[in-house]
Specification:
It is built from six helices and ten strands; from the N terminus they run E-H-E-H-H-E-E-H-E-H-E-E-H-E-E-E. An eight-stranded mixed β-sheet has the order 3-2-1-4-5-6-7-8, sandwiched between helices. The chain has a two-stranded antiparallel sheet with strand order 9-10. A hairpin with an 8-residue loop joins strand 6 and strand 7.
Length: about 230
């Protein structure tokens, strides 16, 4: 397993952005999608964005070539092999995500961590189709992934502390230029939605640790913590 390899499943709007963020941060990235059209569009999007940055002087041609050299594309799920982390960014439908996780679980290295970019589906249900539920958790990137400073981390019922620590340390590094703010949620099924603590009257900290708590007037939905 390569500690510098990341696989991103899905080359759509979010998958493309996440893959770009990972490559920019110095990771070797393979963006996997079964649809060739999605891959071609993803390639064109990144090329256009970086060319625009070069034209504006915010990126050199050398830097552009360096980042693109770390970003590859594939239609083969077997290319998740060797990745220390797999980020799933497929459509927000539970059956599609469960099918994706099952395939990745069968092909990825035993120690590979798999995270879902879901914004609201059950991490525990998604993890249940794998043989490594302790190595599954949620990592919800906000659009556009390469520039947004908020990252939502969600633990499943059996997500291990080791998995959480690896993801918490590793994923914010995907956007090293951002003053990232991490909202960590411990989902409890008795609550209809995750809530985190936040005091509106105080300056917002750089990193916010949130927990699933009983809703009250002083606690607001984590999706509003931006």
């Amino acid at each position: 397993m390569e500690k510098n390899k990341v696989a991103v499943i899905g080359a759509g709007l979010m998958g493309n952005g996440i893959a770009q963020a990972c490559a920019t941060a110095g990771y070797d990235v393979v963006n996997i999608d079964t649809f060739e059209a999605a891959i071609e569009k993803s390639k064109a999007t990144v090329e256009k964005l970086f060319s625009r940055k070069v034209a504006k002087g915010s990126m050199t041609e050398e830097k552009k070539a360096e980042i693109l050299g770390r970003l590859t594309y594939s239609q083969n799920f077997e290319d998740v092999k060797g990745a220390f982390l797999v980020v799933e960014a497929v459509p927000e439908k539970i059956e599609i995500k469960k099918d994706t996780f099952k395939k990745v679980d069968e092909l990825a290295d035993a120690e590979t961590i798999i995270v879902s970019n879901t914004s609201g589906l059950s991490i525990s249900e998604i993890a249940s189709v794998t043989n490594r539920p302790d190595k599954v958790m949620g990592a919800h990137f906000f659009y556009p992934a390469p520039v947004m400073k908020l990252l939502e981390l969600v633990r499943g019922l059996v997500t291990s502390d080791e998995t959480y620590d690896v993801v918490k340390v590793g994923i914010p590094a995907f956007n090293p230029e951002a003053d990232a703010m991490t909202v960590t949620l411990y989902i409890r099924p008795v609550f209809p939605a995750p809530y985190c603590r936040r005091d509106r009257k105080r300056p917002r900290p750089k990193n916010l640790e949130g927990y699933a708590l009983v809703p009250s007037p002083q606690r607001i939905p984590c999706r509003l913590c931006v």
